[in-house]
Structure formats: structure tokens, C-alpha cells
Amino acid sequence: MSMQSEKLIYLDNNATTRVAPEVFEAMRPFLNELYGNPSSAHTFGREMRRSVERAREQVAALIGASDSGEIVFTSCGSESDNWAIRGALELNAEKRHIITTAVEHEAVRNLCEFLGEKGYEVTWLGVDGYGLLNLENLRAALRPDTAVVSMMLANNETGVLFPVEEIGKIVHEKAGALFHVDGVQAVGKVPIDLQKTEIDLFALSGHKFHAPKGVGALYIRKGLSLPSFIIGGGQERGRRAGTEAVPYIVALGAACELAQSGGAHDEIRRLRDKLEDTVLGKIPNAHLNGTNDREKRLPNTANISFEYTEGESILAHLDEEGICVSTGSACNAESHVSSAVLRAMEIPYSRAQGSIRFSLGRYNTESEIEHTLSRLPGIINRLAEMSPYKA
Ligand code: PLP
User: What is the pLDDT of residues 68-80, one digit of tens each?
Assistant: First the structure.
């Protein structure tokens, strides 16, 4: 580890996570001596195949798939989301209507905007001021020509959870549409049991829960023959061409096993609650973005607005102290428009622009949270004093 990362207080785990030592150890031999191709017929190749299949079982176990054959490895969450939605449209070619929400990650939002430009009709469901959906609006939006409904399980910015079990029932009861869930932020953070749901397609991404960047998976419910997105060789039973990224796939499996072994979850929640309660209790004009009902939010995320400040300035001051946070979603780091998620929640600009996402992970400690809490009030105070917006 570099000197710099040793000193960091990393509270940006929704952007990405550190590769867990256990995961790194599991993948290491596949980066050098275990380099065979799982498609090769010799013993060495077959050994790789077994490792890939074991990882598939580990992924299936974490998300409650009924069969490991329902898991297909991809390169990232964005690929899984793109494949799910475009595949569902191809499968239901006569249907031209898509339903999604205004608070999806760009992997879904920008794709649906693009598809809208290509002639599909997209219904964008809004959320209330707490980031929650009104399921009556979903019921009203479903039509016989709805091909796919795509919704996230956990919001990357606020951590708000959508009730995907209930949504799945509504989707299938009212229309023959496929139901895709972007589970990228939820996997490894909340329990998921796909067998108990009516989810047809489910995307996940390794780097959000301690596997390296560059590997993801798409769950495809048994019996659904989703057309391939990457066409070529017969890998992944002909569903996704390209030689399997064995080290990364093995790492994804190990990360799933680590997540399933639990352990860290209660402590992450306790530290997040402490951070959130103290900030909201101590800092004037601090507001939580997202529902107050913690059961309906990820246990690791706190998105807080500091009115009359700018998120970029808070981020820069915390950064100087070695504390890593995010303003909105990581993909927005270069742009200065306020977050689409907070806009959809109709958070006023004076609040939205001063929003910070704290996202905790299994390596955060009490002393890191205390250190952050000792620095934050002074920073916010100074910035608010300087604010031209302050009444
Ligand atoms: N969906 C959500 C909710 C996300 O938070 C992200 C990444 O931030 C993605 C999809 C895209 O995942 P990936 O970075 O693996 O492409």
C-alpha cells in the first residue's frame, strides 16, 4: 500500500472499494501460474473452468439465484445494465415502451435517453422529496406494449432502496414486461434473495464490494434466452463472447463469499449512524437527503446537504485533510450541474449544491469517523460564513 492510501480516511465506498486482502489472495495465482484458458480441452484448461464455475456458484449463492447457470460474467455494472435493457428490447421487439425512474445511475439513465432518441417511448417515474417511488404511478404507467421496466435496488447517491419485490409483482401482474434491476449498489450491502422475487434480470459489479474493477455479472432468470450483447466465441454458454477474465471472475466469487460471511455489516451501520446523527445534530442547516427511515436506505450511506455551502468546496477541504467523500455520484466529479437525483427529489438548489455523500465500508474505524466529525463542523462553519447566499 502506498504511503498516501495508508493515511486516507476513505468514505467514498459507493464510488469504489478497496480489493479485500482475501480477494487479492484468491486471484493472485491466476495472474501468473494459473493462466490457462477455460475453453481449452487439456487438464490445465479444465482446472480454470472449474475455478470459473466455482465463482459462478459463489455469485449465485450471494444473490439467491436458483441455479448458477443464471449468472453470466461481464466486464462491469454498466455492461450488465446495457445488456439487460437492450436484450429485453430485442427479445420483445414488437414492444416499444420502457419504464424507468428519474434517479437511475447513468448506466441506465443515459441508455434510456439514447433509446428515447432512437424511437422508443420512455416513461420516467419521479420520486418524492425523500427519494421514494409512488407505486401507483408505476401501475398507471404499465401498458401492453411495455417491453422492460428497469429500476435500481439501491440509489448510489442517497442509498434509498426501492421495494423491488413488490415492484416485480406489479410489473408481471399488469404487463408481460421484463423486470430488470440494477443491483450494483446493493450487492454486498443488503441481503438479496432473487428466488423470492419476480426479478428477471439483475446487474452487479465487483468493484463496489471489494473485487477489482473490470468484472461484473448479469443474472438472467432461468428460461429467459436473452440475446447476446457481445457476439463471438461460445464462452459463457454462448451468451457472452470473449475469453473469460479468470483472475477477475475468481476475485468476484471470493468477494461474494466474503460479503456472505457478513461480519462487517453491523459495524458499518453503527459507524454510519454515528456519523449521520452527529452531523445532523451538531451542524446547523445540515439536512439529510433521502428517507429518514433507515430500513429503506443502505446501511453504509449518508447523503447530507449543508445549506449555503458548495459541495465542491467541502470536498476540497476534506481532501486536504485526507478525507475522501463525494458530491453526488462519482461520475459527476467533472461536471458542475447539480445532481440529477437531488433535482428529481426537488431539493432546492441552495441545499442540493452543498450535498456530500459519505459512504462507509468494511475498513472504516471508529477513530476515522471521530476524526471526520472533529474536522467537519469547522469546515462547514467557515464556508457558510463566507457564503454569498446566506440570509
Ligand atoms: N449502477 C449503479 C447504481 C452504480 O452505482 C454504478 C457505478 O457507480 C453502475 C451502475 C455502473 O457500474 P460500473 O462502474 O461497474 O460500470
Answer: 999 999 999 999 9
Q: How far is the centre of ligand 1, averaged over its atoms, from the C-alpha of 79 (Å)? A: 9
Residues 236 and 289 in one domain: no
The string of pLDDT tens digits covering residues 204-230 is 999 999 999 999 999 999 999 999 999
Contacts of 216 (CB under 8 A, 6+ apart): 73, 74, 75, 76, 77, 78, 79, 80, 184, 203, 204, 205, 206, 252
Last residue of a domain, one of 231, 260, 289: 260
Q: Is 331 a catalytic residue?
A: yes
Ligand 1 centroid to Cα of residue 276, in Å, is 24
pTM of the predicted model, to two decimals? 0.96
100 lines ligand 1 (CB under 6 A): no
Ligand 1 nearest atom to the CA of residue 182, by list position: 1
271 and 175 inside one domain:
no
User: Can you give the residue range of the structural domain that contains 290?
Assistant: 5-19+263-386
Q: How far is 4 from 287, CA to CA, in rounded Å?
A: 32
In a domain, 391, yes or no: no
- The reply to whether 281 and 216 lie within a common domain is no
